[in-house]
Design goal:
CATH architecture of the largest domain: Sandwich
Largest sheet: 6 strands, mixed
Structural class: mainly beta
Oligomer: single chain
Radius of gyration: 20 Å
Mean pLDDT: 87
Number of strands: 23
Distance between the termini: 16 Å
Number of domains: 2
CATH superfamily of the largest domain: Carboxypeptidase-like, regulatory domain
Number of helices: 2
CATH topology of the largest domain: Immunoglobulin-like
Shape: globular
Amino acid sequence: MNRGLAWLSTRLFNPAIGRPLGIGAAFFGTLLLCGTAMSQNRPQTPNPGEITIYGSISLKEATPHVRAYKIFKDHQVCGIDLREIPVIKNNGDALLDAVVYIENAPEGKPFPAAARKVTINQKRCFFEPYLSVVAQGGEIEVINSDPVLHNIHVYEKAGGTERSVFNVSQPMRGDITRHVIKSTGNMLHLTCDAHNFMLGYVFVAKSPYYAVVDNEGQYRITGLPAGTYTITVWHGILGEQSETVTVPSGSLAHVSFTY
């Protein structure tokens, strides 16, 4: 399956036999299997019975974008003039602030502790961090570290619709709000009803097989059993793209996307 401008460059190589596992064709959703032209950042050989999926997310037709908001109140805390937020952030050709996940992942593996409880700090009228990942059923903790009123308002976006998840006033520095997340979609949009120039995102992971891209736009998902999987990349502004790949045991699959 291919959505949008996704392209897939998939390479499967089994170091145990020292040659490619298969050959096909690849571009815009067609699978290419080859074993010798591996990326310089190729991960280590997976454990026996497991596979590793890795790759990169890059910009081609999409361009970096910064939203500018006028700071209209609480200047002593929030700053003056304009707040510029890079909503499509890059490092060269690499796209940042993206999450790659396996849609049809097997069950049984526990989530890391960092995804079971996520803390978001409101500091200097910023959401810190800008992007978080929380496990389905995990807890979001929101702290007001500013000496001004914040009103955390979180929306779920799914299937082209948006609904309010929670909406809580935090008038005092040190106020803390906690909420357990059970979302039908993947994206939570963070806003502050007191400051329209505050923006953030939370990705809701349905399985622990996900990865946030690094500063080079690269990701790595390990520990999967051999099988056929749908790999999806998500970005808060640019949306999702998906590809499906079959990976034999003990192999590496290189799957990259371009917006």
